[in-house]
Design a protein that fits this description.
CATH topology: Rossmann fold
Structural class: alpha/beta
Shape: globular
Strand content: 15-25%
CATH class: Alpha Beta
Largest sheet: 6 strands, mixed
Order of helices and strands: EEHHEHEHEEEEHEHEHHHE
Number of strands: 11
Mean pLDDT: 94
Distance between the termini: 45 Å
CATH superfamily: Vaccinia Virus protein VP39
Low-confidence stretches: 255-262
Strand order of the largest sheet: 5-4-3-9-10-11
Number of domains: 1
Helix content: 25-40%
Number of helices: 9
Length: about 260
């Protein structure tokens, strides 16, 4: 596959040279696209840490992170994205790619939005075209592949994070010192039935509940653009014409982390 070298967040990464991604590449190289994500990764990754990337898309985060972490274990269910990752990953000897979705079921159906390869492929039934059945992996199996080593996890699964809260909460049982969890209330709301008011209230409640999945094990999540989860729920979800996406950043002191406990 033909690639293009792109420099962003201080590193150069080879990504697929395909016309559908060129507009995105402009945002990426100009620093507009999720600059906080690379700040979080830089703060939490080192040569002693395994990076688990669930929802790897076309390789932006796993390939960038490979230069600073011990190993990258990446998962991507979208068949087009997985093929891109499969072809590009041999250039990164510490990156492993698996075609699978985070799920408690053995298989799941994913739905394309604007065709496979976009960043919005989801298990939620919000697609407008193709669908395909792919393997599902529970969190225990995903973390088994980390081999018990210290890990940092990123999860970006386009709205399915709300259904997977119980699986995500299993991270408390592993040697994980942090999690970046992408939250997509706008996609969740689209998948719900009922009146707009009912859907919005249920969406806001699910966002709040998701922020509490670890109880007191991790500090309350931080957000890049909001002072607190409460501020985000009110200003970013309830009061918006369409709910805004955000990232929950859960971090704890690495020195205090012992496998399975703190």
């Amino acid at each position: 596959m033909k690639t293009v070298d792109l420099t962003f967040a201080g590193r150069t990464v080879a990504l697929p040279d395909l016309p559908e991604y060129r507009k995105f590449y402009g945002k990426l190289t100009s620093g507009i696209w999720e600059p906080h994500t690379f700040e979080v990764l830089a703060r939490n990754l080192d040569r002693e840490t395994v990076y688990v990337d669930i929802g790897a898309w076309i390789g932006v985060t796993p390939f960038w992170a490979s230069a600073i972490c011990k190993r990258v274990i990446a998962f991507e269910p979208d068949p087009r994205c997985f093929e891109i990752l499969r072809q590009l990953s041999p250039a990164y000897d510490n990156v492993t790619i698996t075609q699978a979705a985070l799920s408690s079921e053995a298989t799941v159906t994913i739905h394309a939005v604007d065709g496979f390869g976009s960043s919005e492929t989801s298990i939620l039934d919000i697609g407008d075209g193709e669908s395909v059945t792919v393997p599902g992996l529970g969190m225990d199996e995903i973390m088994r592949r980390a081999g018990g080593e210290q890990a940092f996890v990123k999860i970006d699964i386009e709205g399915y994070e709300f259904a997977m809260a119980a699986e995500i909460a299993k991270l408390r049982n592993y040697n994980v010192h942090g999690l970046e969890l992408a939250v997509h209330p706008q996609l969740l709301e689209r998948s719900l039935a009922g009146s707009r008011f009912s859907r919005r209230i249920r969406t806001a409640w699910k966002v709040w509940r998701l922020s509490r999945i670890f109880g007191d094990l991790f500090p309350a999540p931080r957000l890049a653009k909001y002072k607190s989860v409460l501020s985000y729920v009110v200003r970013g979800v309830l009061w918006k014409e369409e709910p805004r996406g955000a990232d929950f950043i859960f971090e704890r002191n690495r020195a205090a982390v012992v496998k399975g406990t703190e």
